[in-house]
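To: structure subgroup
Subject: Chain for Friday's discussion

All,

I'm putting the inputs and outputs inline so they're searchable in the archive.
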Amino acid sequence: MASKLVVGTFLSLDGVMQGPGGPGEDDSNGFTHGGWLPPHVDEDFNQIMADVLERADGMLLGRTSYDILSSYWPGVPDEEGGAKINSMPKYVTTRSPKEATWRNSEVLVGEAAETVAELKRRTDGVILVQGSSDLVRTLQAAGLVDEYHLLVFPVVIGEGKRLFAEGTAAAGLKLTGSRTTSTGVLHLTYDVTGKPSYGIVE
C-alpha cells in the first residue's frame, strides 16, 4: 500500500503560483497581482479541473490553502462539484494543533516531510496537492512528489512565489500528457523520474 502524490497547480508563464484566484487570496510579501487566473477560465479549463479532481482519492493542503478552500467548498452544491471534494478525505499539514471543521478532514501535526511520508505509506490511491506553495517546496525537498499537473497561463507576473524556486531539488521529469485550452492555457502532466540526466551536445 502506498499513495501517489500529485502536485496540481496554476502557474504564470514565468512560474509564479501566488494569488491566482483573486486579489487578497495571498498578498504576502506585498504581492499585488492577485486574480490572474479568472480571465482565462473556459469550458476546457473546467473540464480539466473536473478530470484532475475526479482522479484524486484524497487532497493534501497546507494550512493557508486549507483555510481558503474550507471557507468556500462546503457551501458548493453537489451538482456544481461539491459532492466530490466535500466527500473525499482531506489532509492539512501544520506544525501546531488545528481544528478542522471541513467534512472528512484530518490534521497532520508535525514536520510535513515526516507526516506526509507516513501518510503515503498508510494510504492508497492518488493524493492531490492543490496550491500550497510552502508545502510543495517541502515535499519537493523530501523527494515525495510523484507527478505534476501544471496549468500554465499566458501571463507573466514578474514576482511572487514560484513552483520551482531557487534552491529546488534537481529532478528529472517525463511528459505524459499535454493539452491547450481555447484561451491558451497549457495543461502539462509530468511523472517525476528521479535525478536529471546530463550529457554533452555533439
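Points worth raising on Friday:
The chain has a mean pLDDT of 94.
The first helix runs from residue 43 to 55.

D.
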